[in-house]
Amino acid sequence: MTRATVVGAGLAGLSAAVALREAGVPVTIVEAAAQAGGRCRSYHDPQIGRVIDNGNHLVLSGNAAVHRFRDRIGAKTPLAGPPDASFAFADLATGKSWTVRINHGRFPRWIFSRRDRVPGSGVVDYLPILRLLSTREARVDERFTTIGPVWEKLLEPVLLAALNTPPGEGSARLTANVLRETIAKGGAAMRPQVAEPTLAAAFIDPATAWLAAHDAPVALGRRLRAIRFDGEVVTGLDWSDGPQPIAPDEPVILAVPPWVTSALVPDLVVPDSFHAIVNAHFDVVPPSGTPPMLGLLGGTAEWLFAFDDRLSITVSAADRLVERDREDLARTFWADICAALGMAAPLPRWQVVKEKRATFAATPDQNAKRPPAATRWRNLFLAGDWTDTGLPATIEGALRSGETAAGLARAGQSA
After folding, report:
1. Which residues does residue 50 pair with via DSSP β-bridges, in sequence order?
2. Is 246:7 a contact under the CB 8 Å cutoff?
3. Which of 74, 186, 295, 381: CA 20 to 30 A from 410?
4. Which are the contacts of 217, defined by CB distance < 8 A and separation ≥ 6?
5. CATH for 4-41+66-75+197-272+363-414?
6. Phi and psi dihedrals of 227, rounded to 5?
């Protein structure tokens, strides 16, 4: 069978390569960086003195592609999180805290329980969510009233994390797809899960080990500089270490960021507006009773993650923070953590990680620019969370994009 080439060893590229190898297709997978993982990478940070992730990436129990991928590669490291769909919040401005508990089944019993629903809300406050499930594209704030307790104490912080875009400006279509696959299916699909101890242990290391064991080791440090085209096919790849001819029946999957892809592929429309994510990691053992994940309102930090050996925070759509001094950010985040956990402690060792172009802006306009996996060249396919997956830029979307591109590549070989 003809060998496929996968360019990029982030989650989308790894997903494509694993799906192809599982189907018996020989694969060459190449990564420009010194390690696989893309934005979902782990590394030993000398400043904090331990292995950390570049960012905190949340998945949900209903993310089917996540579980397919981990099953395929034999990932043994479990995903950590509460046993049920519980979302704890703390308002730093008022000192109040609450937990939203979504029941297991599809019928939303939780909205009828004062103990489980958003404080200050009533059953009727949840009915407008149905308007978000329409397939018509619009901004979220054109379909939903972005005031009131349900929005402010649940939907806004959750959707901000999911879209990495101010949620009122976000795509209602993407939001509807997220809601259909999660909260509409009940708590069984809504349990939050976090890679622990690291993203590498949960996703990247078992994937690269699986590929190496299946004669497809990831080649690192090779950059694709140009693609050669002739008519309807790709005929060659020009790497930093030399050219590679490509036969018309040899599939090529590009699984690299949109700005890299658009520089390689002529006349390709891709998202061109992005939002930052800022993460911070603190070398401190969490106090006893700290929830695994805590939503923070009224401060600068937005989500607090408690690992066995560290506390980490994430701020989405964090463009306003990217140019701020790193130590100033660390002190600001630490003050939020201390307020949320009711403790007083000096600033521990810390690290702040800024991803300036973390994801495309999940607005209607940018969503319309996402290309499909197939291209006008019959042996060239695209993968990445920025392609038209129907989801925001998430781990689930990245993995699905790889599966889609692999399926098209296989279909092209058999045509």
Report:
1. 45
2. no
3. 74
4. 29, 208, 211
5. 3.50.50.60
6. -120, 135
Hey, where are the domains in the chain?
A: 4-41+66-75+197-272+363-414, 85-190, 274-360
Distance separating alpha carbons of residues 97 and 294, to the nearest angstrom: 10
- Strands laid side by side in the 233-239 sheet: 224-230, 233-239, 242-245
- 3-state class (DSSP) for residue 286: coil
Please check whether residue 164 is in contact with residue 395, taking contact to mean a CB–CB distance below 8 angstroms: no
CA separation for the pair 76, 246 (Å, rounded): 37
- Measured CA to CA in angstroms, residue 44 lies from 13, 326, 331 at distances of 23, 19, 22
Confidence of residue 135 (pLDDT cuts 50, 70, 90): low
CA distance 329 to 331: 5
Token digits of residue 317: 């759509």
Helices 205-213, 11-22: inter-axial angle, 10-degree rounding: 30
Mean pLDDT of the chain: 95
CA-nearest of 82, 33, 76 to 54 is 33
**Cα three-residue angle 7-13-14, rounded to 5 degrees:** 130
Helices first, then strands: H and E counts in the chain: 11, 20
Q: How far apart are CA 311 and CA 334, in angstroms?
A: 10
Q: Give residues with Cβ within 8 angstroms of 234, minimum separation 6.
A: 227, 228, 246, 252, 377, 379, 380
From first CA to last CA, the distance across the chain in angstroms is 13
Q: Quick one: which of 61, 59, 57 has its CA closest to 191? A: 61
Does the pLDDT at position 255 exceed 90?
yes
- 382: tokens are 């695209």
Over residues 83-123, the pLDDT tens digits come to: 899 999 999 999 999 999 999 999 999 999 999 999 999 99
Pick from 201, 189, 193, 192: which is nearest to 79 by CA? 193
Strand partners, 130: none
> pLDDT at position 65, please?
98
Q: CATH top-level class for 274-360?
A: alpha beta
Task: Tell me how long the chain is.
Answer: 415
Confirm whether pTM is higher than 0.90.
yes
pLDDT over threshold 80, residue 227: yes
- The answer to whether the beta carbons of residues 277 and 167 sit under 8 Å apart is no
Instruction: Tell me if the bond preceding 82 is cis, omega within 30° of 0.
Output: no
Structural contact between residues 398 and 10, judged by C-beta atoms closer than 8 angstroms: yes
Q: Where are the beta strands (DSSP E) in 316-398?
A: 350-360, 380-382
**Rounded (10°) angle between helices 64-73 and 205-213:** 50
